[in-house]
Structures are given as C-alpha cells and as structure tokens.
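Zinc finger CHC2-type domain-containing protein
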Amino acid sequence: MPGNDLARQIKEHLTARQVVELYGFHPDRGGYIQCPFHTGDNHGSLKVYDGSKTGWHCFGCGAGGSVIDFVMRLFGLSFAQACLKLNCDFGLGLTGERPSMAERSALLEARRREAQEKEAAAALYREKAAEYRQLWEAQKFLSPDIVGYIHPLYAEAAKKLPVLEWWLDQNIGR
Ligand SMILES: [Zn+2]
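Tokens:
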C-alpha cells in the first residue's frame, strides 16, 4: 500500500508520549492519561508507552495501537490523513513515497472544504455588514428628533447596532 513507507518512518521518529503530549494530554508518572475514546475515564486507563515498547493501550475500553491509530481516532482521520497530519504537525518533513491518489484527493478535498468555509464566512460577513448599514440608516433617519416618536426600527437599531459592531470587529478579514 502506498504511504506505508511514510507510516514506518513516522513510527520510527515519534514516541506515543510525544504524540499525546502534542495534542494536549499529560501522562502521569505511570504513563497513564484519561482515555479520549471512552467516557467517564476519571482515573486514567490509557497507558502511553515510551522507550522500547511503542504505542498505547486503554485498559478501560481496549482501544490501542500505534501513534497513527491514536491520531486517526482522535481526529476522525483516515490512515493516510493521520500520517500526513503527524508529518506536518511535528515538522518531520518526511516524504515517504509519492503521495497516492487517495492521499492527494484527501488533501484536495480538505483544501476544497476550507475554501468553502472561507466563502461561507465571507458571505455571512457581507450579510451582517448590510444589516449593520440598514440599521445605521434607520438610527439616523428615524431618530425621535426627526419622526417625533420612538420608531420600532430605531429601537431595534439601538439594541442591535452595538452587538453587530462588535461582531463585525471580531470577524473582520476572516
Ligand atoms: Zn478507553
């Protein structure tokens, strides 16, 4: 299977301890962490091996395997994606073999999804900016000074504008 070479290199380069630590787990003195793969593991049943024995094993739910298995399960990735993620997150710069079709299309798919999310965020920003403009005009032209009473749109604008302004500030350039 293409990508096996990369997987082998990753297993040679990384210990389970390094991997779980990068993703925010802190093994106790005995090398145990709370298992992210079953609920209610308050005392920490997942043993992280370091040194001559590699990998990890949860004595609570029986899950276990290599560092790649850990990343696959933690992030819901395929084998190939998990290898690429580890390679990238640890800056290993491993190439393995040429990426397989499956790996390339997984990367393309991830990039496409990212672009879609960006586009959706931009559309939402435009929508909120338009709403902000409308309310800003309502506040200006429907003010009680001009129309002689509290127009409902004016009241709405007074309530929503600060919230919208804050949101637009937070999300600018996203
Ligand atoms: Zn478990």
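Residues 101-141 form the longest helix (41 residues).
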